[in-house]
Specification:
- By secondary structure, the protein is mostly helical.
- It is built from ten helices and no strands.
- The longest helix has 24 residues.
- This is Peroxidase.
């Protein structure tokens, strides 16, 4: 159950974002720009990072949704679980391992980020832009995990699957329409 009485029992991201529509729109636009922009790091990789970061943070909602999104892109659930246990032994493309190791550091111990992490990523064949895109994804999901947990929003298996399929099929832009629909019915904020 959500912590705010203004949020419904089945609250999701759009309900939270509707509490401050201008910030909500900016955040959804950021999702689209960061997660669906052209780079070597494709949407599948970014959704894998989103699920990985959310799993590290034990954010039930974001992990559930982005695990389902990654699965829709073809990532087996067993791979995501293996990454959470140990990046180095997980059955993923070797090029992804330095990126995912760095995502782990930035999520769990950000002050321990070092030049050697960036060097390993670049040595694996990624560009500085790819590294930047990975960092944006890690930062975005650390933020989103705290946003959902801070509001007490957990979701359900049915919601995770539906949102994961939708994000795979149409991306993040339709959330702007949902937010606009929410704006049409102002949310009252109780003192």
């Amino acid at each position: 159950m959500a912590f705010l009485s203004t949020l419904p029992d089945d609250a999701g991201v759009r309900h939270i974002l509707a509490l401050n529509p201008a910030a909500g729109r900016a955040l959804i636009e950021f999702h689209s720009a960061a997660l669906r922009s052209d780079s070597q790091l494709d949407a599948k990789d970014k959704e894998l990072i989103a699920a990985f970061v959310s799993g590290l943070n034990a954010c039930q909602y974001c992990y559930g949704v982005h695990k389902e999104t990654a699965k829709a892109f073809g990532v087996p659930e067993s791979v995501i679980e293996a990454l959470l246990a140990d990046v180095n032994s997980a059955p993923v493309d070797e090029r992804l391992k330095p990126l995912l190791s760095y995502a782990r550091v930035l999520t769990l111990t950000p002050t321990r980020a070092q030049q050697s992490h960036a060097d390993a990523i670049l040595a694996a064949g990624w560009t500085e832009r790819d590294l930047h895109d990975a960092i944006l994804t890690v930062c975005l999901f650390n933020f989103m995990n705290r946003l959902l947990e801070g509001h007490g929003v957990k979701g359900s298996a049915e919601l995770y699957q539906a949102r994961g399929q939708a994000l795979h099929a149409v991306g993040y832009a339709p959330l702007l329409d949902m937010l606009s629909t929410s704006e049409a019915k102002p949310i009252s904020l109780k003192p």
